[in-house]
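Subgroup meeting minutes
Present: P.N., E.W., G.H.
Scribe: E.W.

1. P.N. recapped why we're keeping a running log of single-chain structure predictions: easier to compare across weeks, and new members can see raw inputs and outputs side by side.
2. G.H. added today's entry (560 aa).
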Amino acid sequence: MAKLNAIFFLTLIVLIPLGYSADVLDNALIPKFCYLSLGLLAFYLAYFKKLYVLPFKINWFDLFLLAYLSLSFISIFQAINKPETLYESLKIVLFVAAYYMSLFLINEDRDLAFQKIAIAACIATFLAFSFSINELIDAAKSRLPFKDTSYLINGLSGHRNLLSSWFLLLIPLNALGFWYKPKWPRILFMLALIIQLIYIFCLQTRAVYSAILIGFVSFYFLLQLNKANDKWQKVLKNSLKLILAVLGSILCIILLLVFFDKFPTLIEFKPESSSSVKERIIVWSKTITMIKEHFFLGVGAGNWKINFPNQILDGLYRTTQGNIVFARPHNDYLWLWVELGCFGLLAFLAFVFTSLKSAYNSITNLKTTNYASILASSGMLVYLIVSLFDFPRERIEHSLVFFLYMAIINSSKETKPLTINFKVKSLYPVVLVLLTFSFYVGYKRYTSEVEIRKALVFKDEQNYSASLAAIQYAKNSFIVSDNNAVPLVWYEGIANYNMQKQNLAFENFINAYELNPYNYNVIGNVGTVYFQRQDFDTAENFYLEALRINPKFNDALLKI
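Output recorded in log:
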C-alpha cells in the first residue's frame, strides 16, 4: 500500500507535469492528458478489489461536482465544435477521478499520504527548476530589460505566468513536509521553498504576486483561528464574516455595473497602463457581452475561442493586424460562465465553497492544529486568485493540484456533511469506461496533432500536396480544428486552392465556414471563391462580414 501510495502522488505531481512532446501543437496539453488518463486507469485497476466494494457516501460536494461535470457534457448541445466540448468534458472526468483516488488514498493513511505529497511537491520543484534554470540564466544575461526577457522562461509549462503559478501552487504541498515528518531532511523542503519564492520573484507575474500575498495572509489568519481560544476565535469569525460580506457586496455592485454597461473601463482612465492590461480588459468586456447573449446555457465547453470573434476584434491590435488568436479570456470565471452558462459557474462555485466551508469547520472544531486543511485552504485561495487573471483551469497539472487541495480538505473527519449511503459498485465500471474512453480520445487527438503540425510545416514550405495528405490523415471524429479553432478542412481548402482544384477548395471553405462561422480568414476565403465564380453580391456579403469582425482585414478591404 505504501509503495502504491507513493507512486500515485509521484505520478500526479511529478510525472504528469513532465508530459511533453515537441511533435504536437501544444506540448503542454495533450501529452499530459494522455499520460493522466492512462495513469488513472492503471491505478483504478490496481485498486479494483477495494474500490469495487467500497461503501461510498455522497455529500453536497459530490452532488455539486457531479452537476458541474454533467453540465459540461450537456453543453455539447450548444456547441459549434462538439469534439472540443467532449475533450474539455473528459478533462473534467480525469480531474474528478484524480480527486476521488486522492481522497481514497488519504483516507487509507492520512499521515503517510501527506508525507508522500510533500516529497512529490519537493521533487516537482527541483525538476521545474532544472528545466528552466538555463532559460533564467539566458534571460538574466541579455542586454534587454529583464521584464521583457523573462517571457522566455517557461520550462515545461508553456508560458512564464503558468510556470510562476505552478511554483506557487506547489508551496502548500511542499510545506506539508515541515509538519508531517517525511523521511527526507527538512533542509530539502526549505531549499524547495527558497527556489519557489525566488522564481516567483524573478518571473514578475502580477497575478501571482497578488495570490501569494493573499495566500500567506490567509494561512496566518487560519492558523491564528485554529489556535485561538473561544473568545478570540469568536472575534476572528465575526471579522471574517464582515470581510466576506463587504467583499461580496462590492462584487455584486461591480457585476451590476458591468452588466448594465455603467462600469467605466480602465482604458479610459489609465492610458499609460500596459498593453497586456488593456488587452485583457477589452477581452473581458467582449466576453461579458457574450455572457449576456448566452447567459443560461453558454456556448459549449471549449467553444469560447470560436464565438469570441463574433464580438468584433477591433481594439485588439495583435489580433487584427498580427494574426494572433485569443484561445481563452484570461479569467477562468468568465470563461466558465460563457461556456457552461450561469448554472455551470454556480456548480463550480458551489463545490469550491463547500470545500472551503468544510475546511473552516475542521479548522475551528479541532483542538490541535490542522496544518493540512490550513495549507490546502490557502492553496485553494491562491488558485482562485490566479484564476482571475490567467487560465490555470486549462492546464492539467494546475487543475490536478487544485483538486488535490480539495481531497486533502474533504478527507478531514471533523466535518459531518449531509450524506446518502450509496454503493460505488454501480459506478466503478462507469469510471473505468470513462477513463478508457478518455485515453482513446487523447490518443486520437495526439496522433492528429502530430499530423497537423506536419501539415503546417508543409504549408509554410508551399508543399501543398504533402500538407493536404497530412491534414486528411489527421481528421477523425474527435478533432475537427487546431488549437486556434481553425477548422482542419480550411487547411484542405488552402491546399486545394493552391493546387488549382477550385471546386474542391470551394467545398472545403464552405465546410470550414460551418465549423467556424466567425473566423475572418475563413469568411474571406469563402468570399474569394464566390468572387471567382462571379457571384459578386454573395462575395461582397462575405467580405463585409469579415470586415465586421476585423475592420483591419486587408484582404477584404482590397476587394470591397
